[in-house]
Amino acid sequence: METMKINKLEIENVKRVKAVKLEPMANGLTIIGGDNNQGKTSVLDSIAWALGGDRYRPSGAQREGSVVPPTLHIVMSNGLVVERKGKNSDLKVTDPTGKKGGQQLLNEFVEQLAIDLPKFMESSSQDKAKTLLRIIGIGDRLSELERKEKELYSRRLAIGQIADQKAKFAKEQPYYPDAPKDIVSPMELIRQQQEILARNGENQRKRDKADRYRQSVALLSREVGSLQEQLSKKRKELEDAQLDLDTAAMEAQDLQDASTAELEAGIANIDEVNRKVRANLDKDKAEEDALAYKNQYDGLTTEISQVRKDRTDLLQSAELPLPGLSVDEGELVYNGQKWDCMSGSDRLKVATAIVRKLNPKCGFVLLDKLEQMDLQTLREFGAWLEQEGLQAIATRVSTGDECSIVISDGYVAGQEHAAMEDRKTEWKAGEF
Ligand SMILES: Nc1ncnc2c1ncn2[C@@H]1O[C@H](COP(=O)(O)OP(=O)(O)O)[C@@H](O)[C@H]1O
Ligand SMILES: [Mg+2]
Asked: Rounded CA gap, 220 and 216, in Å?
């Protein structure tokens, strides 16, 4: 089916409308102008009712003061005729071959949001983004990527905090560059000490021995005088003793005791040394720990950039309805701006583009209250619609040149007379 547009519409006695005939432009903006409360919005409401079905029926559909029921007559671009008339405003759809159809046939090309754009414009930014993602068919994969990125991000945040703490802890540990690499045992020093003490004991015994001979010599010398008769014998003894003395004295003469002071200090110092060794080992461990966490953090950073890239790639691979339109963190973004920061005309452009993509068979969109756009913006928007091959029927509080028609008191200004004439003809035709 081709793209459907509205070729012609005739409305009578719907809401504020008395009689309006309009042939909208096939492409671009058709503006229904007029002052307030003249029936502009009633025209759009009539189109919505005619094409959208009974749920768009206005509560006060028949114009107050009219004795005849509402009449709606729309001719679509493929020749399809849509009518509502009579007491119950029954729908009548006739195709160019004369075949009858119903709402079902209209639903094929009528996009609900195209006849009810405010519904889209007023939906939450998340819902707008969802609509867009749904039509480009990547909603599920994108939210999965976003979920994954969030999870990685919070994991990295936690790891990063631990990594910082570990690094800080490692930095605070004391370090002693002069301490040995390994824990020192006191046994070896004690063994050396014992050895020296044993040698010193031996020395002492030798010294004692020399002393004893010294006493003996003295005793014998004293006895020499009184013991003349034993002199020769004693002289011999004296000589021997003298010899022994010489030997012993010689042995004892250069003996020097080694000091154990250093070893004692070493033993006393051993706890302090080991404290430093342990501190150094602890610092090494803390640094290893910190490095492991840092590596983990860096790994997560790589993963996050990959997920972000996947997300960007996914969005770029999707066919978006408008250049510059994208989704970021579950919200629509157009030329870098989120919905609440978009200009009124950008919002209309975005909404129109999305609605169009929702059902490409629907070639028209109804836009109420275009007075928010200045003339320049209006022209740009109109040009964009033309370029997109889209038909927009819009209302605007204005009677200026930009308006295709001006509605006044329920009539198209300048057509009041014609409408009266039509009615007379119909009345006459009905009578005869
Ligand atoms: N069934 C009706 N019959 C007559 N007037 C109506 C009916 N329904 C609404 N109105 C009146 O129409 C006016 C609004 O019409 P509307 O088409 O919204 O005007 P506009 O869009 O030009 O401001 C209001 O004054 C309202 O009271
Ligand atoms: Mg209005």
From this structure: 6
DSSP code, position 339: G
Q: Are strands 405-408 and 28-34 parallel, antiparallel or unpaired?
A: parallel
pTM tops 0.85, yes or no:
no
Q: What's the half-sphere exposure (Cβ side, CA atoms, 13 Å) at 285? A: 6
Please report which ligand is nearest the Cα atom of 58.
Answer: 1
412, 406 in Cβ contact below 8 A?
A: yes
Evaluate: CB of 408 within 6 angstroms of ligand 1.
no
CA distance 408 to 38: 5
Q: Which of 15, 20, 38 to mutate to test the pocket of ligand 1 (most atoms within 8 A of CB)?
A: 15
What average pLDDT does this structure show over 367-377? 90
| Residue having the nearest C-alpha atom to atom 12 of ligand 1 | 16
Task: Give the mean model confidence (pLDDT) for residues 374-402.
Answer: 94
User: What SS3 state is found at 262?
Assistant: helix
At 2, list the tokens.
């081709």
156 within ligand 1 shell (Cβ under 6 A):
no
pLDDT of residue 2: 79
In short, whether 39's Cβ falls inside 6 Å of ligand 1 is yes
- Reported as a single tens digit per residue, the pLDDT across 403-427 is 999 999 999 998 876 666 665 555 5
d(CA 156, CA 52): 51
User: What are the φ/ψ torsions at residue 425 (nearest 5 degrees)?
Assistant: -60, -50
Spatial distance between the Cα atoms of 206 and 244, rounded to a whole number of angstroms:
12
- Are 402 and 11 in contact by the 8 Å Cβ rule? The answer is no
Q: Would you call 139 helix, strand, or coil by DSSP?
A: helix
Stretch 217-237: mean pLDDT: 78
Q: What is the pLDDT of residue 253?
A: 84
For the segment 150-155, the average pLDDT, to the nearest whole number, is 95
Q: How far is the CA of 14 from the centre of ligand 1 (A)?
A: 9
Q: Among all ligands shown, which has an atom nearest to the Cα of 15?
A: 1
End-to-end CA separation in angstroms for the chain: 42
Non-local CB neighbours of 327 within 8 Å, separated by 6+ positions:
129, 132, 133, 142, 315, 333
Residue with CA at minimum distance from ligand 1 atom 25: 37
Give the percent of the chain with pLDDT over 90: 62
